[in-house]
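Usage

Read records sequentially. Each one opens with the input sequence:
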Amino acid sequence: MSHFFYLDGVLHADQAALDRVAEQFGTPTYVYSKSALLENFHSYADACEGREALVCYAMKANSNLAILDLLAREGAGFDIVSGGELL
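and closes with the structure output:
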């Protein structure tokens, strides 16, 4: 399932019309799909089920606090390689 799609010629992320997001917040604006993030995380976590494993997110990829909070609440660990990333 695609979490980004066109509806009546308007690009949407999940159920959010991105033209409205751009009007409200201006551009450029970064928009993430919560459902896509969770779906991808759970795909990895489910594949590790029954093993002693922790799915970790690389903070170097994106240190957005909302994304980190979302993944932490789902049980993710984090790959941090420097004190700056930790800070």
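Summary fields computed downstream for this record:
- The CA atoms of residues 59 and 68 lie 8 Å apart.
- The longest strand covers residues 4-7.
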